[in-house]
Amino acid sequence: MSVPVPPGPPMPYAPLPAPAPPRRKWPWVLGAALVVSAVAAGVVLAIAVGKAASSPCVDKSQTAPCVGPGGTWVSADGAVRPRDAAAPATTSPSIPALVAPTTTEPALPEPTAKDYSVDLAVVSKQCFGSAGCNVVVEPKLNALGASTLLWECDITYSISGDSSGELIETAYAQGGTSYRVDRTAMSTKNTKVAPKATVTSVSCRKP
């Protein structure tokens, strides 16, 4: 059988302490990220400053090839030379234009009367005893000079042997041996007369 324990004196009231709030970790993470970003930016800035300080260009933000100090030019390989002699080749060397060879005709003089000769071929002949003959002749022209190849000419010639006197006719030469001629009808005093022709003048022009 248990013996009851007499109650002790009452204890004074003391409130329980409030629980501590949980510690938030995100400010530390954000702070670490800001520190890393600042360090990276500082490294990039230091590199940029180092490059600018080491650039040989007048404008430190540029890289070679560029204008250097003191009127010089800094080429891509870093060499420094006077600006007038250092301009980099930005265009290909010019190629001279092809010029077609010029061809000119030889300067041949204008033909004269001595560059032609003319013979007469008898086409028909009818004689009447002592009364003479009716004769039809055709001129045969010959070119004697090289200059006749480049000209068109009117060739005037005279025919002797006609009973009325000298006859004047004109033939047309189209260069080389191409001619346009007319036949001539004449009357001779007797059967022994042989008509003859002589070139007297030539008038020429370029075709």
What does this structure look like?
The chain is an alpha+beta fold and 207 residues long. The protein is 16% helix and 31% strand. It contains two helices and ten strands. It has helices at residues 26-54, 83-86, and strands spanning 66-68, 72-74, 80-82, 116-127, 133-143, 152-160, 167-173, 179-180, 184-188, 196-205. The strands form three sheets. A four-stranded antiparallel sheet has the order 8-7-6-10, with no helix packed on it. The longest helix is centred in the N-terminal third of the chain and has 29 residues, at 26-54. 13% of the residues are buried. The model is unreliable at 48-52 (pLDDT under 50).
Can you lay out the helices and strands and say which pair or pack?
Layout lengths: L25 H29 L11 E3 L3 E3 L5 E3 H4 L29 E12 L5 E11 L8 E9 L6 E7 L5 E2 L3 E5 L7 E10 L2
Features:
2 helices; three-stranded antiparallel sheet; four-stranded antiparallel sheet; alpha+beta; single chain; rod-shaped; 207 residues
Total strands: 10
Shape: rod-shaped
Stretches with pLDDT under 50, minimum 5 residues: 48-52
Largest sheet: 4 strands, antiparallel
**SSE topology string:** HEEEHEEEEEEE
Give the integer mean of the pLDDT values: 76
Oligomer: single chain
Assign a percent range to the helix content: 10-25%
Q: How many whole angstroms does the radius of gyration measure?
A: 62 Å
> Can you list the strand order of the major beta sheet?
8-7-6-10
Cα distance spanning the termini = 166 Å
Quick recap:
This protein is α+β, with helices and mostly antiparallel strands. It has two helices and ten strands; from the N terminus they run αβββαβββββββ.
